[in-house]
Amino acid sequence: MSAYTWGTQGACVGTPTPDLWHPNGNGVQAQRETQEASRICMMCPIQIECLQYAIDNRVTGVWGGVRIPEGNISGEDRAYKPRMYLDSL
Ligand code: SF4
To answer: Given a cut of 70, is residue 55 above it in pLDDT?
Structure first.
C-alpha cells in the first residue's frame, strides 16, 4: 500500500485540530495534545502502516499513536516491526 493510498484513510484526515499531531515542546499543553492525538490514533484503521512510515522516514510528531521527538528513533530501532514497537509501550 503506498503512503498516499493509506494516508487518505487515516482517522486524522480532515480533523479540525491537525495541530494535535504536532505538539510543541514537553509542557502540559503538548502532553494533552499528544494524548488526544494518540487516543484518535488508537481507533485508526491504518495505525500500523502509519507508525511504520514514521519509523522508515524519520519523521517527528504523533504517528500511529506514538509521539516521535526529533532524532528519537535510532537506526537500530528502525529495524523494529511496528507491532513490536507498539506492544513495547
Ligand atoms: S495512526 Fe494516527 S497519525 Fe496515523 S493516520 Fe491514523 S490517526 Fe493519523
So the answer is: yes
In a domain, 63, yes or no: yes
In 12-87, where do the E strands start and end? Answer: 61-63, 66-68
Domain that holds residue 74: 3-7+19-87
Atom of ligand 1 nearest to the CA of 61: 3
Q: What is the pTM of this model?
A: 0.78
User: 11: Cβ below 6 Å to ligand 1?
Assistant: yes
Residue 57, domain member (yes or no): yes
User: What integer best gives the mean pLDDT of the chain?
Assistant: 80
Asked if residue 14 is part of any domain, the answer here is no
Checking 40-44 for CB contacts under 8 A at 24+ apart, the result is 40/11, 40/12, 40/15, 41/11, 41/12, 41/65, 41/66, 43/11, 44/10, 44/11, 44/12
